[in-house]
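Help needed: design a sequence for this.
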């Protein structure tokens, strides 16, 4: 199934036209609003170096799930 999404506002300019796989393999700083300093801190604290690492992190996935549960409970 083909999926289309406009990620221009969510990614730094250099990453806007890449495939999903290329974005997932990109440094976490490819996400708009995540600085190189932020990326260094994520790497030091959680060993998160790529967008894929961030998206599959058990800590961030648990936090997202809890936030979703709260939304559903309202």
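Sure. Designed sequence:
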């Amino acid at each position: 199934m083909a999926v289309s999404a406009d990620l221009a506002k969510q990614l730094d300019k250099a990453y806007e036209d890449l495939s999903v796989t290329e974005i997932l393999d990109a440094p976490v700083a490819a996400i708009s609003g995540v600085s190189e300093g932020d990326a260094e801190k994520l790497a030091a604290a959680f060993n998160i170096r790529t967008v894929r690492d961030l998206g599959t992190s058990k800590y961030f996935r648990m936090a997202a799930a809890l936030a979703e549960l709260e939304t559903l409970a309202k």
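The radius of gyration is 14 Å.
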